[in-house]
Amino acid sequence: MREAGRQTVTRGATGGGYPPAAELATVSLALVVVGGVFMAASFPTPPPLALPIALVAVSAALLGSAILLLVRWRGFAWAAFSLVVRWALVAYVISAGMIEFSFVRNHASGWPLLVVTLMLVLFAVDVPVIIAVTVARYQSSHPA
Question: Is residue 77 part of a domain?
Answer without folding.
Answer: yes
